Each structure stands twice: as C-alpha cells, then as structure tokens.
Amino acid sequence: MSTDAIDGQAGGFDPAEEAQILDAITKWLERDVKPHVMALEHEDEYPHEMVAQMKELGLFGATIDPEYGGLGLPASTYAKIVTTISEVWMSLTGIFNSHLIMSAAVQRFGTEAQKRAFLPRFATGEMRGGLALTEPDCGTDLQAIRTRAVRDGDDYVINGTKTWISNGIEGSCFALLVKTDTEVQPRHKGMTMFLAEKGPGFRVSRKLEKLGYKGIDSAELIFEDYRVPADRLIGGEEGRGFHHAVGGLELGRINVAARGVGLANAALKDSVAYAQVRKTMGKPICQHQAIQLKLGDMATRCEAARLLVEQAAGAYDRGERCDMEAGMAKLFASEAAVENSMEAMRIHGGYGYSKEFAIERYFRDAPLMCIGEGTNEIQRIIIAKQLVERNPV
Ligand SMILES: Cc1cc2nc3c(=O)[nH]c(=O)nc-3n(C[C@H](O)[C@H](O)[C@H](O)COP(=O)(O)OP(=O)(O)OC[C@H]3O[C@@H](n4cnc5c(N)ncnc54)[C@H](O)[C@@H]3O)c2cc1C
C-alpha cells in the first residue's frame, strides 16, 4: 500500500498545508476508492482495505490533539476533507466521523488519565468506535433514554438497548449515554456518559438493513449486566452525560453538512458531464433550457451550502457559539443533497434509475443527512430559538 500519511500540526493551517492534505486525499480517492465503490456499495460490504488506508492517512486522528497522537486539524480543514470524500463515497466518512465525535468527548470532557489511555489508540485507528445515544423508542428526545447504570463497588452495571449505532459491529469502543438517576429533575441531570469497550454483557444483537449508507455497519447493541469500571465514566462525575452528548453536536452537524455538500457536488458534477454527451433533438441536452435551469439551481445550491459550512466551521474554530450557524449549514446542505440527487436523476433520465450509474446511490444516501445529528425539523427549531435569543426586543 502506498498511501501518503498526512503531516499533522497543531492548529494554524495555512492554505498551502491544507491544499497538500486535500491533494493526498484526492489521490487516494482516485487510486484506491473510486474503482471499488460500486461493487462494495451494492454488496453492502465493509471496506476493510480502505479503512486500513484511512488509518495510514491519519484520518482516525484528524481532529485529535497532536499531544495525543492526532493531526489536530481545525474544523474548517476537516469539513473540506469530509466533503471531498463524500463526493466519492459518503459512507466512508461515517466510519471516522462518529469515531471522532467520541474522541472529542474524551478530549473535551475526559480526565487526563482517560485522555492518555484512549486518545492515542483512537488516533491511530487501532481502537475505533462511535457514539451510542439512540434507543429503540427515542432518538430526538434523548432525555427519555432508559439504558441504566447502577454503581456496584468499583464498577457500574449497565442494562439497556441502543440502536442505529454506526460502527456498531466493526467498532470496539463507544461513548455510551445512560441514566444513572431516573428520578432527578430536570431529567438531563441523571444522564452520564461512559467509554464502553466490548466485553462480557455487551453484544451486537443485529445488523440493521438500510436504504443507503451501505458498507458502514449500523447495529443494535444490547447491554445485559455489562460491567464497566467506574474510571470509564467520562470526566469522572455523574450527571454530565447530556452536556457531553450535546457538546459534540455542533461539530457533528458541521460534519453532516459537509457530507451534504459532497453529495450535492457529486450530483452536480455527474450531471454537468452527462448533459454534454447525451443528445436529444440533435443537440446535447445541456443546450435545452429545461436542463440549464436545473444545472443553474444545482450549482447555486452547492455554493450556498459550501459557504454555510465554511462559515459554521470558521466560527467553531474561533471558539464562538455556533449552534445556529451549524444548524443552518446542516439544514441547507442536507436539503441541497436531496434536491440535487433528485434533479440529477431527472437529468440522467432512465440511466439515473440504473444501478450502473452513481446517481441512484446519491438519491438513496442523501435523505440520511436530513435525519442524522438532529433532524432538520429540530434544526429549524434551534435556528428560530437562537434568532429570538440573539435579537431580544
Ligand atoms: C443510518 C443511521 C445512522 C445513525 N447513527 C447513529 C449513531 O451512530 N449513534 C446514535 O446514537 N444514533 C444514530 N442514529 C440515530 C439518529 O440520530 C436518529 O434516528 C435521529 O436522531 C432521529 O431520532 P428518531 O429516529 O428516534 O426519530 P424521532 O425522534 O422519533 O422523530 C420522529 C419525527 O418527529 C420529529 N420530531 C421529534 N421531536 C420533535 C419536536 N420536539 N419538534 C418537532 N418535531 C419533532 C422528528 O424531526 C422526526 O421527523 C442513526 C440513524 C440512522 C438512520
């Protein structure tokens, strides 16, 4: 394997360094990913070889501090990486996105001992995982979770079920949100987050079948008298779990928005190329005004979505509050991905519906961006609440 590792540096990425990173990613995508996407996607096969290459590239440590072995990339550079990869195969970004949100929870809220014990292994990809929040009867209303942890000597004993967990089968460690107190009000004060490694009492019950987002594993996880040492409680203090979970959402939303931009771009690029070679009535379809109107709207959506992501990532990197900005980016970019994939299908006519073209994959993948990291209905509510809060009369 000849994948070039990316050189990391703490913060302050200049445009030349960023261009070098994106160039290494683009070369890898062209050489090692593009030729295999169609087959792996249609077979819903986990891309083991690509994961090994992603380890070499340093992607599993992209946003982890260099002190703990990561690349320490700012969110703005990271978002561009996510967009670039999503243009080729969005599923790949899920393999390191939720892993990095778990890592961010440890980096931001963990004890020094937890950081030293876990972050270096997360950064190399030797230990991979994700975020286990959602349960069969609650996703949006996280405070309604029922997975329960009860203190027993130096351990906690955990019982419950998590569902839709990305990397649930291939991953070995998860940031697991539980209830340590079911009585306290407000409910979030009874929530706690653990670093849960697979072991006795922690099993995968099933792989979940999906419309799209193939290749990456989504699973249901069962905890039956699962014992976790008390020193795996993130930050060491009960009742902070909800804060830890929502603390990662801004970056998570920027990630999902960046994926949306990638999908919207891919649909546009394929359409611009196809419209120049497909002829009807004696001329390429790009010369018909009906197609030009679609291309014009698609390109405008791509640019607007990209700028919203850039703005949200910039605010995040400057340490500013950016829930409204991340929400707007996530909302607009995910809807842009849905609209552009539909328009690409129309432009491609019957071939858009064929499994021999990538368009049908964009069409299946795009709706997930409207659901994950807080549905788009919730994003609209967050934006509206922030509008009022920031503009009091
Ligand atoms: C492929 C895939 C991968 C995923 N990966 C992960 C993962 O790695 N880890 C993880 O923890 N979860 C994961 N999820 C779960 C995902 O985060 C949830 O599906 C999402 O948060 C929505 O929750 P829900 O499905 O329970 O929908 P619900 O919360 O039941 O919502 C149903 C509908 O009601 C609307 N709604 C709910 N509450 C309100 C409200 N207050 N106001 C207005 N509208 C409302 C929603 O917008 C939605 O339209 C994944 C899901 C999928 C499909």
CATH architecture designation of the largest domain: Up-down Bundle
- Low-pLDDT segments, ≥5 res: none
How would you characterize the largest beta sheet? 4 strands, antiparallel
Helix content: 40-55%
Bound molecules: flavin-adenine dinucleotide
Helix/strand class? alpha+beta
Q: Which outline best applies?
A: globular
Provide the CATH superfamily of the largest domain.
Answer: Butyryl-CoA Dehydrogenase, subunit A, domain 3
Q: What name does the CATH topology of the largest domain carry?
A: Butyryl-CoA Dehydrogenase, subunit A, domain 3
Give the overall average pLDDT. Answer: 95
Number of helices: 10
**Strand order of the biggest β-sheet:** 2-3-7-6
Number of domains: 3
Amount of beta strand: 5-15%
Spatial separation of the terminal alpha carbons? 61 Å
Tally of strands: 9
The radius of gyration computed from the alpha-carbon positions, rounded to a whole number of angstroms, is: 21 Å
Helix-strand topology string: HHHHEEEEEEEHHEEHHHH
Structure summarized in a few sentences:
The chain is α+β, with helices and mostly antiparallel strands and 393 residues long. The chain contains ten helices and nine strands.
